[in-house]
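[#protein-structures] MJ: dropping NR LBD domain-containing protein here for a structure pass
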Amino acid sequence: MGILKSAWTIWMRLDALAETAEYNRLHGRLENGIQICTNGAKLDIEEIKMDLSWCTNYSAEQIESFMNREFSLKWNRIIDEVMKFNPTSFELNYMFLHLCLHDAGKKYQGKILEATEKLLGVLADNLHTYYSNKMRMINYSGRIAQMMKINRMIEMELRDRREKNSLANVFNLYKIEYSHPEMFDLM
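AK: finished. structure tokens for NR LBD domain-containing protein:
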């Protein structure tokens, strides 16, 4: 359950990232700040206006200054890398699983870390088999390096979000409580 709680927001982010990169690759780059959020729905990050008075005692201007307005710049860099890499669905799944399992292992330690390390070993073996047998690649180290570069970029963005959420908690930015707050630490 810990792995699932840790993974769901990461999955949402990687899914939107991959869908945006694929759209840009096939149809040309979306305008700056516009991202695919799910099933082809487009969202202009810079133009979002929401009434957050139900969940905070701070003004909209204060919340907006706290929110990550550099979001589109960071994600556009990652989208560019994903577009250049053009991962197969197998590679994209590997990237997702690697991100989630690595994150859950770091977060929960102990038995979960042991389990995630074993699963990461199985994933690495499966990736080797995929490249060797299905793709018939002898030298695939460049593809693995590119996947890990993209994952590190995503991990940095996720870490920034966690730090912001920690600050939000310190300053009681939000007046709502979650039954499972760890599922919302990357929102």
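MJ: nice. The first strand starts at residue 34 and ends at 38.
AK: one more thing. The domain at 2-184 is CATH 1.10.565 (Retinoid X Receptor).
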